[in-house]
Amino acid sequence: MKQEDVSQFLYNVYNKLYEYWGPQHWWPAETKFEMVIGAILAQNISWNSVEKAICNLKRANILSIEGIFQTSDEMLSELIKPAGYYNQKAKRLKEFCNFLKREFNSDLEKLFALDISSLRQVLLSQKGIGFETADSIILYGAEKPIFVVDSYTKRLFYRLGLIESEKISYNDLQAIVMTNLTPQTQLYNEFHALIVKHCKEICKSKKPICNKCCLKLICNYYNEE
Ligand code: SF4
């Protein structure tokens, strides 16, 4: 596809998804700190499990930098158990809070004031924070325009025919999208959320429900079947 075609195609996909599903209101969190904690806990686990862990932290009244920092490792692991890999994730949460205290005087807004590239670099330098988590924090926490890629994005764009393989690297796919869509936080926010929704409900891994899909007329997978 030529660049203008890719751009037009991506906007077309976005518009069709938005028309079908409506606004997704991401990220589901009451505060930015809760959003960041949710992003760290969300690695390799369903969102329902993350919600249970967040709920436990709220109930124990420790959903704050100081609260997490001062809670024992054992207690923290116990509270976030529903989110899986709990010993490892408890360690990561503590390390992240320690980093915020040390480097940003416990002020998340100071971290978020960095420009996108520095913020991404700083987040990626934290143990256990990979591209998807870092970019989710930048997009949904710092509210800066960076496109979040995940396995749903790779699956959908591969089936639609935009990319040749689901094995495309995170950064390569992100670059394709960001070169072709205007860098707008709200657009990237909604697009990622819509892709997740669509892949969970319709473009499922094993049996996509193509006859119900709003993208079928522009989908390679459907049209080649
Ligand atoms: S038509 Fe089928 S394969 Fe294509 S995007 Fe829709 S559900 Fe996925």
TrEMBL record:
Asked if the keyword Metal-binding belongs to this entry, the reply reads: yes
Gene3D superfamilies, alphabetically?
Helix-hairpin-Helix base-excision DNA repair enzymes (C-terminal), Hypothetical protein, domain 2
> In its UniProt record, which GO terms are filed under biological process?
base-excision repair
Q: Which domain of life is it from?
A: Bacteria
**InterPro entries listed in its UniProt record:** DNA_glycosylase, HhH-GPD_domain, HhH_base_excis_C
- Could you tell me which CDD domains the record lists for this protein? ENDO3c
Q: Name one GO molecular function term.
A: 4 iron, 4 sulfur cluster binding
Q: Where is the HhH-GPD domain?
A: 41-201
User: Keywords assigned by UniProt?
Assistant: 4Fe-4S, Iron, Iron-sulfur, Metal-binding
The name this protein goes by in its record:
HhH-GPD family protein
